[in-house]
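Quick question, first post here. What does this chain look like in 3D?
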Amino acid sequence: MARFSAGDKVFQTRGTFLQHGVFVTAKTPMTVLKVTLTSAGEPLYDLQYLDRESMPHTIEGLKESELKPA
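> Answer (accepted):
Ran it through. Tokens below.
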């Protein structure tokens, strides 16, 4: 069972990282777009991230252990 569902606000705990040419920071709240279960039953999350210019980006495949509630 997934801890978060679509529409929930979360923070990622990985620190700052680069994905598809966008730096994703840990202190910016993100919105869960989609939850996908792996074959092992582990949820993977697709999130909407707004950069400093408020441009939306989709961050794909974050694990539940890398997220905390906003």
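DSSP finds no helices and seven strands in the chain.
The chain has a mean pLDDT of 93.
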